[in-house]
Amino acid sequence: MLDIKLIRENPKLIEENLKRRQDSEKLKLLKSLIKNDMEYRETLQRQESLKHKKNIVTREIAKTKDKKKIVEMKKVSKEIGILDKKQKELKQKLNSALLGIPNMLHESVPYGKSDEDNVEIRSWGKAPNFDFKPQNHMEILQCLELIDSERAAKVAGTGFFYLKEDLALLDLALQRFTIDFLRKRGYVLVEPPFMINRKAYEGMIDPTDFEMVTYKLEKENLYLIATSEHPLGAMFMDDVFNKNELPKRFIGISSCFRKEIGMHGKYTKGLFRMHQFNKIEQFIFCLPEDSWNLFEELQKNSEDLYQALGLHYRVVNICTGDIGTIAAKKYDIEVWMADGKFREIGSNSNCTDYQARRLNIKYREREGQAPKGFVHTLNNTAIATSRTIIAILEQFQQKDGSVAIPKVLQPYMGKKRLEKE
Predict the structure, then answer these.
(1) Of 174, 218, 231, 313, which one has the greatest count of Cβ atoms within 10 A?
(2) Distance of alpha carbon 293 from its chain centroid, rounded?
């Protein structure tokens, strides 16, 4: 969330940021927040003034036993109690509103209303030049008998699949290749809890995503994770780093669970949007002055991975109307698919101190000193295996129905092709 001091001292700056985001509802929320904050501070000031008065008069009563003052202080105590209740209610409203105000956008984020306004900044590789009519990934997998959607729907519903034999091995190969690749670059591997509590979740995501995205465990204050980014970011909740400990670079490996898959107007075929999938996530805690350089480091890591796999992709700078509330700037990598369109395979976000402020993650100059400020957090989808599998299947499909396995994955797979046994 944003610093309340920034909102108090420069509300116009926040207003302009929301106008760039074209978010009229959040503009209303900002006005309500400012009004509640003024009332909160007035209430707090009145409460403190009465408490000060009560302390002075109480000492006098102890000496004089003045009955009028005793009656007066009973009224003061009652008013303090009323103000205390009001102050807590206003504080709750303020915190709720602060969670809803989006992050400040970086100046380089392009203006736009939807994903159609995202700006391509570069591409790598070339689209395959097929001398046959290419198939989509589900047609390929069904021909190779590597997937079972009907039985998965029978036991779990739509949005789930049984991955069989070489398809399951390809998923594991992508995970292991990515882990080995990033560990060589100094990233620490973590398998986090696959469930986290609401406080941890609220530190990481837009509260409006709770009902739409997350699975809640019945009668438990626990939610299945939508990405390892969330438990990784919350891992140091309420901690203080020494400056020389930063940056901390992690890779998280996990299954991910998401309720909502049928987004209106979005591509939803097969493995592209599922309730359950596997992902390797990059995550960094760092000093504020280092975050933009590390943002580009994360981007390079992802692009190096896709280049090593030989996949044709492009990078887009996400526009103001499509970026969401958490990131200050976001790049998406989009892969070429057999229908000739590019679709998102992963995102790279600098969230500045927005998440750290919610989670109370700070840094100090050295051990024993008071915290200096909040760290910055960055996250990046190194590999979402299901979407990467789509790209491999559709870009490397062969005329005979087989699929060439990228050379870097062949040692993990023990073969060069996916083909029908």
Answers:
(1) 174
(2) 19
pTM (two decimals): 0.92
How far is 216 from 207, CA to CA, in rounded Å?
A: 14
Q: Where are the domains of the chain?
A: 4-100, 115-418
Q: 39: buried, middle or exposed (CB in 10 Å: 19+, 13-18, 0-12)?
A: middle
DSSP 8-state code for residue 160: -
Q: Options 1.10.760.10, 3.30.930.10, 3.40.50.1860, 3.10.20.70; which CATH number does 115-418 get?
A: 3.30.930.10
Tell me the backbone φ, ψ of residue 30, rounded to 5 degrees: -65, -45
Per-residue tens of pLDDT for the chain, all 421 residues: 999 999 999 999 999 999 999 999 999 999 999 999 999 999 999 989 988 888 888 888 877 878 888 888 888 889 889 999 999 999 999 999 999 999 999 999 999 999 999 999 999 999 999 999 999 999 999 999 999 999 999 999 999 999 999 999 999 999 999 999 999 999 999 999 999 999 999 999 987 777 788 999 999 999 999 999 999 999 999 999 999 999 999 999 999 999 977 665 677 789 999 999 999 999 999 999 999 999 999 999 999 999 999 999 999 999 999 999 999 999 999 999 999 999 999 999 999 999 999 999 999 999 999 999 999 999 999 999 999 999 999 999 999 999 999 999 999 999 999 998 7
Orientation angle between helical segments 166-183 and 385-395, nearest 10 degrees: 110
Distance of alpha carbon 378 from alpha carbon 393, whole angstroms: 30
Which two tokens mark 310? 């030989």
Residue 134 — φ and ψ, nearest 5°?
-70, 150
- 198 CA to centre of own chain: 15
